[in-house]
Design brief:
The structure is a single chain. This protein is of the alpha+beta class. The chain has a domain of 121 residues. It contains 17 helices and eleven strands. Strands 3, 4, 5, 6, 7, 10 and 11 form a seven-stranded mixed β-sheet that branches. Strands 1-2 form a two-stranded antiparallel sheet. A hairpin with a 5-residue loop joins strand 8 and strand 9. Helix 9 packs across helix 16. The termini are far apart.
């Protein structure tokens, strides 16, 4: 990592984002994973987010990426912002040192990703994709591909994408039609069209490296016959210099509800040259390495935008004068309902952050807990981002519906996170399906750990969650699938409250927020468990 001093990049923009450094220090202590480098890394990342990236957020919304004569033109300032990320070493923060990465813990990389996402989510998506691709290559690529691609991805010279979705193959990835034909020299001709490709192209990197799912001749139907290929925009020479342009083209950029600064494209491969990553017909396993990385990252995007929405709402509530308040304050923060909304925003944001960081710590430790927490972190984090952003608009009142406040952009930008990288419904199915193939052992182990913390206020909820888990395991496949979403929400609500209580015990000043989470938010878990108990009853009468 190079220079971390970003003071010469200018001041804050209209959104004075403040990175939640102290929350992350506290969570690292609670999780027992704080390291000596945490302080300098978090402080430097905070400066980058606050001073360099946050001023770009509004420009990305007002001046979207556009496609001109086959070339993507990115939003004003994004090139400089990305260069600051790359030159600071932030892209390779947790990548292996042998390829130029820092090899730092995932908890630190996750904290940095929250900061950068809260400052400018549209730009943060670019390095997030690259980080996921680096991890996939580290685990599955040949040594030659690793040596050629990973150092340049870490340096930010090249950027990365993941290409799964096709017009007829969304959540059903196995329905893809993209094909790969062997060329006899170890490479393949990849032909097909992929949609919804995040950062499909850029004008601030020399190359874009596409990881593409395609089917080899003779590949079985469905996901079992899919292979994974590296298909670069420009074909690199063995020494890493760039050679001929590949037969890869961005044919359209989507017009989206939000994230206007992040170009989402349709990418066409016309017998483009590619190289196999991993084993033939094992592409989904390799791609899942990148997807799981991205799922935690997307959960943290929800936390990041929730934090930004909290800050906007708190600033507005502390400055807006309107009516006589119940608590005698001059501003609307003295109205009970405004206080309720702001406290709910704060409580849910901290709970989602704690779950995501617990997931990151489990990844660092290589435990089964990581797999169990990933769908919870993704779904709860993104639902929190959406819910908190909407509450933020409500706190602003009429001004929240006016774009200049910034509250509306946050709600638009975060909406897609509950859809991409596997919809939250799919996350819930993963939790109650694949992640319960151990007979619920990991779920019960986590419940036991929460119980062992000894807080008497949480015991009744833990009893209910334990009974709800046993009931879920006894349900048939249809009922369990119908129960998946409310069960995930219930588990997240209890787990988030557990972290609030731990935080309050460590820092008594947090007790009022923990009490709010315990008394006002935790009771919702009982309603979700009741819904989960219904299984599929009555759904046959639906649309």
């Amino acid at each position: 990592m190079t220079d971390w001093d970003y003071s010469d990049h200018g001041g804050k923009g209209s959104m004075a984002y403040r990175a939640p450094v102290q929350d992350h220090h506290l969570l690292m202590r609670l999780l027992g994973v704080e390291s000596p480098e945490a302080g300098p890394v978090l402080e430097a990342a905070a400066r980058l987010a606050e001073e360099v990236l946050a001023p770009l957020n509004r420009a990305g919304d007002l001046h979207p990426a556009r496609l001109e004569n086959g070339v993507v033109r990115t939003s004003p300032g994004f090139a400089a912002g990305f260069r600051a990320l790359a030159e600071g070493g932030w892209i390779g923060l947790s990548a292996a040192p042998e390829h130029g990465g820092m090899g730092l813990p995932r908890v630190l990389a996750s904290a940095v990703n929250e900061f950068t996402g809260g400052a400018c989510l549209a730009l943060q998506l670019n390095p997030l994709m690259t980080q996921g691709q680096i991890e996939a290559l580290e685990h599955h690529a040949s040594d030659a591909l690793k040596a050629l691609y990973i150092p340049r991805l870490i340096a930010g010279d090249w950027t990365a994408t993941m290409n799964l979705t096709e017009a007829q193959a969304g959540s059903d990835v196995g329905a893809l039609r993209t094909r790969a034909e062997p060329l006899g020299d170890g490479s393949y001709a990849v032909t097909g069209e992929k949609i919804f490709i995040t950062w499909a192209d850029t004008d601030f990197a020399a190359n874009v490296c596409h990881l593409v799912l395609a089917r080899l001749p003779g590949g079985a139907e469905g996901t079992k016959g899919i292979s994974l290929f590296m298909v670069p925009k420009v074909i690199p020479n063995p020494d890493g210099s760039l050679g001929a342009r590949n037969a890869v083209q961005v044919v359209r950029l989507e017009h989206k509800l939000g994230l206007h600064g992040s170009p989402t494209g349709v990418v066409r491969f016309d017998a483009a040259k590619g190289w196999l990553v991993g084993e033939p017909h094992k592409g989904m396993a390799a791609m899942f390495t990148m997807m799981n990385n991205a799922r935690l990252g997307v959960g943290l995007q929800g936390v990041a935008v929730a934090e930004a929405a909290c800050q906007l709402a708190e600033d507005w509530a502390g400055s807006r004068v309107q009516g006589k308040t119940a608590y005698g304050e001059a501003t609307i923060s003295g109205h009970p309902d405004v206080r309720r909304m702001v406290m709910e925003m704060r409580a849910e944001t901290f709970a989602a952050r704690a779950i995501a960081m617990a997931c990151a710590a489990a990844i660092d430790q290589g435990t089964a807990r990581a797999a169990f927490l990933t769908p919870i972190a993704k779904a709860y984090g993104t639902e929190t981002g959406n819910h908190v952003a909407q509450l933020g608009i409500q706190v602003h009142g009429g001004m929240g519906y006016i774009e200049e406040s910034g509250a509306a952009q946050l709600a638009r930008d975060i909406r897609v996170t509950s859809i991409y990288e596997g919809t939250n419904g799919i996350q819930a199915l993963d939790l109650v399906g694949r992640k319960m193939m151990d007979g619920g052992a990991e779920a019960f182990a986590l419940i036991a750990e929460m119980r062992a913390a000894g807080d008497p206020d949480l015991q009744a909820a833990l009893n209910g969650l334990e009974a709800g888990t046993q009931r879920l395991l006894a349900q048939g496949p249809l009922d369990r699938a119908a129960a998946a979403v409310p069960y995930l929400r219930a588990f997240a609500q209890v787990l988030g409250t557990h972290f609030h209580l731990l935080a309050a015990a460590a820092e008594p000043a947090r007790a009022p927020l923990a009490r709010f989470a315990l008394r006002r938010l935790l009771p919702r878990h009982a309603a979700w468990l009741a819904e989960a108990a219904e299984g599929a009853t009555g759904l046959d009468q639906g649309a």
